[in-house]
Write a structure and sequence with these properties.
The protein is built from 23 helices and five strands. It is mainly alpha-helical. Helix 4 runs antiparallel to helix 5 and helix 21 runs antiparallel to helix 22. The two termini are about 35 Å apart.
Length: about 525
């Protein structure tokens, strides 16, 4: 409500006539224009000395002060940005439209308010900075720094770009707070699962705590890191379809190995069905944001399309080919023309070749696999996830099993979970409960047999990985236990069990100490 009132007040005040003024005279005016363009093109290091010098010579000029507000905003000085913005948003008359200034000032003000109590943790070299609200989100900081460092190295390898530091990630506790500091509504965030952004030269992600079972926050951070690098490398001229295609293709390169598109079964089905029915989305429909598409299915299809297009192009034309495309776009070439030029063919032919390769996928048959949808928390109360199980009979046995489990009767609970499984085989909620009870009953083999296929079908369902790690540990399979537990943390680092298991299979004393500490702290907070 406060933000809405502020935006209305600013919009009304923008209608009030202002005193006309000119830009700084001669070359100084040209330098200010150059600085504004440099900020828009994410060439912050080139804009900074220009604006600093102009602010010294013209401290009260509203256009100079507005551009200093912009500089401070992208540098993370939100209090300074809001202060300069308040003094110039109405008075500035050049370089940017009144509507643009009002919207950006709203973001400056909102970001200052949302982040004013955040704390930060820096890497030892100061290159990576994580800002988060005091409290549980501190768990994320060290893992986020490790992910950013790995993503940084991967992007230097893939795109040949090293972003000047410091590189900032801000973690927001809820979808509502992410909405306040962005142009997205809460409804858009929850509908399409767009819970992270790269904008204003910073990475912004929602805490996994905001969702019932977390989400792939580490890969999401890798995705947004690609956006940051590509924005800088292309002077922010890459269209949405190119941005999202490259980011989705490269988002997991921070893990090591060659880049590849990972489509979950539901997204793969949507893509095959769209090809089969000639219902692929036009790339232009993705503008201005995939988050603004009408449904989660459309968003999943859009990501599948653009990522497979980039994947094919990179496979045919190599890493250097993709780099050349980025450079051409930075130089002002239209993205379609840039891809075509590097491929030495026309865009229509490129698109036809991609579509032809898609048609080689098997036709989509049978009912569509359910699309994994993020389940957001609304309030601090525990969420009853049994209601997500579609089969009523299975839900009934699941609830009985949960009651028995809470009374520390794992064998009886396992019997009820087994009956639920008979009615809803393949459901990840039922399967994770059955595996957990089987493990508690001394049957890790049964747990692994249940979990293996489920992690393929539901790779973002954290409880599956957490139990799988414990089951491998029970069998003395330390390498598999470590891999599964790490996967769990990359989805929900607030679950203590993967930390406890990792402490037992750590590959270094520093890792063992960290995971033991996380295990104790998180168990104590429950």
């Amino acid at each position: 409500m406060r933000l809405r009132a502020l935006a209305i007040a600013i919009s009304l005040s923008a209608l009030v006539p202002t005193l006309a003024h000119a830009l700084p005279p001669g070359d100084d005016g040209a330098r200010l224009r150059d600085a504004a363009i440099a900020i828009d093109e994410v060439r912050i290091e080139q804009a900074e000395p220009l604006i600093t010098a102009l602010a010294t010579s013209y401290p009260d000029d509203p256009d100079v002060r507005w551009e200093r507000a912009m500089l401070r905003f992208v540098r993370g000085d939100y209090a300074g940005a809001a202060r300069d913005g308040a003094a110039s948003v109405v008075r500035a008359t050049h370089l940017r439209s009144p509507e643009e200034r009002v919207e950006i000032y709203r973001l400056m003000w909102a970001t200052r308010e949302v982040t004013r109590r955040q704390v930060e943790q820096r890497s030892e070299d100061g290159r990576y900075v994580v800002r988060f609200s005091p409290g549980p989100d501190r768990v994320l900081a060290e893992y986020a720094i490790e992910t950013m460092r790995a993503a940084d190295e991967a992007m230097q390898r893939e795109l040949g770009v090293r972003v000047p530091g410091p590189i900032r990630v801000e973690i927001y506790p809820t979808a509502a707070t992410l909405s306040e500091v962005s142009s997205l509504s809460v409804e858009e965030i929850e509908r399409t699962g767009t819970i992270a952004l790269c904008k204003w030269d910073r990475l912004m992600i929602t805490s996994p705590r905001a969702l019932v079972r977390g989400y792939p926050w580490a890969d999401t951070l890798g995705h947004e890191f690609v956006h940051m690098v590509l924005s800088r490398a292309s002077r922010d001229r890459a269209p949405v379809w190119m941005q999202e295609g490259v980011a989705r293709f490269l988002e997991r390169t921070w893990r090591g190995g060659e880049p590849a598109v990972r489509l979950d079964p539901a997204s793969d089905f949507l893509l095959r069905r769209a090809v089969q029915n000639d219902q692929l989305l036009s790339f232009d429909r993705l503008h201005p944001s995939i988050a603004m598409l009408p449904s989660a299915e459309d968003a999943a299809l859009a990501f599948a399309q653009v990522s497979t297009f980039v994947e094919r192009f990179r496979r045919v034309h190599g890493r250097d080919g993709l780099r050349r495309v980025v450079q051409l776009v930075a130089d002002g070439t239209d993205a379609r023309a840039a891809f075509a030029e590097v491929a030495d063919t026309g865009w229509d032919e490129l698109e036809r070749a991609w579509r032809a390769e898609l048609r080689e996928r098997p036709d989509a048959e049978g009912p569509a696999p359910a699309l994994a949808r993020p389940v957001f928390r609304h309030g601090e109360a525990e969420v009853d996830d049994t209601q997500e199980v579609r089969v009523e009979t299975a839900r009934r046995h699941l609830r009985i099993g949960d009651l028995l489990w809470s009374r520390q009767r794992p064998l009886a609970a396992s019997h009820e979970y087994g009956r639920a499984w008979e009615n809803a085989e393949g459901d990840p909620i039922v399967g994770s409960r059955l595996a957990r009870a089987s493990l508690a009953g001394g049957a890790p083999d049964r747990a692994i047999a249940v979990l293996g296929p489920l992690t393929e079908r539901w790779p973002d369902h954290e409880p599956l990985w957490a139990v799988l790690g414990s089951a491998h540990l029970a069998r003395g399979e330390h390498e598999q236990a470590r891999a599964a537990s790490l996967e769990a943390l990359r989805l929900n680092p607030f679950d203590p069990q993967p930390h406890c298991d990792l402490a037992q299979v750590a590959t270094s004393e520093s890792e063992r100490a960290r995971e033991n500490g996380m295990c104790r702290d998180l168990q104590g907070s429950r």
